[in-house]
Amino acid sequence: MAQWYVKKLSRLTQVSVKTLYHYESIGLLKPSMRLDNGYRVYTDLI
Fewer CB atoms inside 10 Å of the end CB: C or N, the chain? Predict the structure, then answer.
């Protein structure tokens, strides 16, 4: 299972971090987990 922080996901998808946050706010994208420090972690699991 691969894991990415939002910045790495942004680079891989060529979508800005701001856009990824917007997608999350409207329900199109959901992080797999949030760490205690607030970091979003995304995985390749659906």
Answer: C
